[in-house]
Automatic annotation (TrEMBL):
GO cellular component: cytosol
Name of this chain's protein: Uncharacterized protein
Record-linked PANTHER family: ATAXIN-10 (PTHR13255:SF0)
InterPro entries named in the record: ARM-like, ARM-type_fold, Ataxin-10/CTR86_families
Family annotation (SUPFAM superfamilies): ARM repeat
Lineage: Eukaryota, Viridiplantae, Streptophyta, Embryophyta, Tracheophyta
Signal peptide start-end: none
Length: 278
């Protein structure tokens, strides 16, 4: 397909072709991704969403496109676009989906995303109180913190000063606007149940004083839902039950604080019951 022709009609044709595995393979051979990535540097507002959608599709399971995106500095290009005046919520949603597809390709791909976005850019995205951005952001974080090399990035995400503020902002978003997909549940399950960071994250939420009591209740509800839905798949860390007990001992302080202590108490009791049953 001729990529020298500009215009909405040509982009629409590329978008349709990019929706199939065969089409993505043909476009990889034609070098379409490189042309589109260069085009992002001088993109017109009307073309931004179509180009991002095509790039997202091209990086969905097609190794040649994923590798081309890596070698051409795709994560850095997308970072620039997502924080430009042209980027609206939909552009950020699609851009994060693109990064998620790309990160699935392998360790060097995940490292490239992490290098471009952690911590400042992830934090900026996490402060957007919109599920359309929060859900794919959680997908990117979860993917980057999985598989080979993921352990180091996971520990960086749980860093008290640089990483956990990102998670705190994501939970605030879930509190304010909800969430639509399971990525957030999986992310907090890793952090709080499978690894020993529940108490630290809880303390960060409490110190933020954002809708005090309700944000903590949202976190506990997320954890309860994960334990209820996937009791066999989840490995409880040795610190998890102890952390719940320590939180329970803080209830007298919560009772004299503004916010939603009743919601928090309900969430905590539900979580305690689930842990006992498991």
């Amino acid at each position: 397909m001729d990529m020298s022709a500009d215009g909405e009609e040509n982009l629409e044709k590329l978008l349709q072709v990019s929706k199939t595995a065969e089409g993505r393979s043909r476009l990889a051979t034609a070098g379409t991704l490189a042309v589109l990535l260069r085009r992002l540097s001088t993109i017109l507002p009307v073309d931004l969403l179509p180009v991002l959608r095509i790039l997202r599709n091209l990086c969905a399971g097609e190794a040649a496109n994923q590798d081309a995106f890596l070698h051409l500095g795709g994560p850095a290009v997308v970072e620039t676009v997502l924080f430009s005046p042209l980027a609206n919520l939909e552009a950020r949603r699609i851009g994060l989906q693109l990064l998620g597809n790309f990160a699935l390709a392998g360790e060097v791909h995940r490292a490239a995303v992490w290098g471009s976005f952690y911590p400042a850019r992830f934090l900026e995205l996490a402060t957007i109180r919109e599920p359309r951005v929060c859900d794919p952001l959680c997908m990117v974080l979860d993917t980057c913190c999985s598989s080979e090399g993921g352990r180091r990035r996971f520990e960086e995400l749980c860093d008290d000063e640089r990483g956990l503020p990102i998670v705190v902002e994501i939970i605030k978003t879930a509190c304010a606007g909800g969430y639509e997909e399971e990525w957030l549940e999986w992310l907090v399950t890793k952090i709080c149940i499978e690894e020993p960071y529940l108490l630290l994250l809880f303390q960060k939420l409490a110190s933020s004083m954002y809708d005090y009591g309700k944000t903590e209740a949202v976190l506990l509800k997320l954890l309860s839902k994960s334990l209820s839905n996937r009791p066999v798949e989840i490995s409880l860390s040795n610190d998890f039950a102890l952390s719940i007990l320590k939180i329970f001992r803080k209830l007298p302080m919560l009772g004299t604080s503004p916010g939603s202590p009743l919601l928090f108490l309900q969430g905590l009791l539900q979580l305690m019951c689930l842990v006992i049953l498991l």
